[in-house]
Amino acid sequence: MDALAEDLELLPSTRRVLRHRLAVAQSEGRSPSLVAAVSRGGEVVWEGSRTSVEGHGPDGDVQYRIGSITKTFTAVLVMRLRDEGLLDLSDPLGRHLPGTGADEVTVAQLLAHTSGLAAETPGQWWERSSAELRPGLAEVLGEEPFKHAPGRVHHYSNPGYTLLGSLVEALRGKPWEQVLRTEVLEPLGLDRTSGEPRTPHAGGWAVHPWADLMMPEPAEDLGVMAAAGQLWSTTGDLTRFAAFLLRGDERVLSAESVREMRAAAAPAAPGSADAGYGLGLQLNVCDGRRLVGHGGSLPGFVAGLWLSEEEDLTAVVLANCTSGVPASTVATDLIGIVAEAEPRFPEPWRPFREDDRVPLELTGIWYWGTAAHVLRLRADGSLELGPAGVTGRAARFRAEPDGSWTGLTGYYAGETLRAVRRDDGTPGHLDLGSFVFTREPYDPEAPVPGGVDPQGWRGIG
User: Fold this and answer.
1) Cis-peptide into 200, omega within 30 deg
2) Digitized pLDDT (tens) for each residue of the chain, 461 residues in all
3) What are phi and psi of 99, to 5 degrees?
4) Which of 100, 149, 146, 140 is nearest to 122 (CA)?
């Protein structure tokens, strides 16, 4: 076995703890069946299932309905439209899909659930009633679609993602599911993800709250609401999709674009246990670990897909009960079990190649006013800026062709870092979003805003 395979294979003790967590979830949640998978480094390292039926249990090829995890797939389609230049996230919806009654909300607000639209549709419970009751967007939105002013608060909205699905159809000229299959499912090899169930698939069940009895749930086609929750999938497909959400795939979305999806775009709603929302992805912090993913539910099914970028771990949990199993909690627990029992090995340190351009003159101590910062150059060509010995702002920067650097994280994300050079070509100071960083505190030879006292530093007279 090579070293990589050894690093990916879990210890028997870890696998037992994972099996135990799954068994507890199925037993306490009283789910007819439950299936889960954990992947690391893009490879499945553990699969498990529990069932109330004797004999063969579900595996990674059995479809379950995934509910609102569908929204993440829809968000990927919208980001593809953005990357192709067909829209901008700041565009009002009415520019591309006029006449809905929500013309003023932006694409970004719809993606991040800050549009102010209602959480649900008017009329009957849409997940458990015929799509014929909602033949178009007018029936989805109703006469008073807004509960909040656009852009003010995070308010989860199923109709909002219905609008995004219709936006995809308007700009592609094809049905949402057809676009999804051609542009996402087929390139990523997700051939067990579909709008309608395909054998083998689980049936959805309601479990009586006060008795150990079950009743089948109807599996309604969601019609125009499909982009908000229609899909069926498997743990096999969803672990591959989660790996894509971590790394990107140039056939679908770049690593930079999926990183943008994972970044916070909206704060958590008041009273929510979440840490906020990205672009089609929920954010959470569990035991100090930042997690990104999405939960899902429809009558008869619950689902959770979560990932940790830091640990390069993903977990998927699918169950066929209307309530009882906290699928997202179980998925994040599985990540925590592996992360704590078998921490990720760091990448080996490697120096720069001899032919790399190394801007060594930028590294070392710089001062913002009197606050010392260290600028470090990493082997991947990025710069890291952080406070020296005290608390302060830290960020990582990506090199640009014009010699500048773009912030990727923290307070300086999106901001430009430039080295302003003297006549002899040596760096005199750094300009970071108008902040001047100098080689010594308040360097009198640098253009420090407000100037530097000509008497310089002095003690008490």
Assistant:
1) yes
2) 344 444 678 999 999 999 999 999 999 999 999 999 999 999 999 999 999 987 778 999 999 999 999 999 999 999 999 999 999 999 999 999 999 999 999 999 999 999 999 999 998 899 999 888 899 999 999 999 999 999 999 999 999 999 999 999 999 999 999 999 999 999 999 999 999 999 999 999 999 999 999 999 999 999 999 999 999 999 999 999 999 999 999 999 999 999 999 999 998 777 666 778 999 999 999 999 999 999 999 999 999 999 999 999 999 999 999 999 999 999 999 999 999 999 998 888 888 775 556 688 999 999 999 999 999 998 888 899 999 987 889 999 999 999 999 998 889 989 999 999 999 999 999 999 999 999 999 999 999 999 999 989 989 87
3) 85, 15
4) 140
- For the record, the structure tokens of 354 come out as 């001899």
Q: What are phi and psi of 53, to 5 degrees?
A: -100, 130
Query: Is 31 exposed, middle or buried (CB count within 10 Å of its CB: 0-12, 13-18, 19+)?
Result: buried
Read off the tokens for 315. Answer: 């977990």
Beta bridge partners of 63: 201
Q: Across-strand partners of 33?
A: 51
- Whether the full predicted model's pTM is greater than 0.85, yes or no, is yes
The position carrying tokens 């923290």 is 410
* Residue-by-residue DSSP string for 103-143: TTSBHHHHHTT-S-B-SS-SSS-GGGS-GGG--SHHHHH-S
Determine contact, residues 36/47, Cβ cutoff 8 Å: yes
Whether 282 contacts 292, CB under 8 Å: yes
CA distances from 271 to 89, 117, 275, 276, 292 (A): 28, 19, 11, 11, 19
Q: Running DSSP on this structure, what letter comes out for residue 258?
A: H
Q: Which residues pair with 387 in a beta bridge?
A: 373
What DSSP string describes 153-167?
S----HHHHHHHHHH
d(Cα 92, Cα 452) in Å, to the nearest integer?
Answer: 47
Rounded to an integer, what distance in angstroms lies between the CA atom of residue 342 and that of residue 10? 8
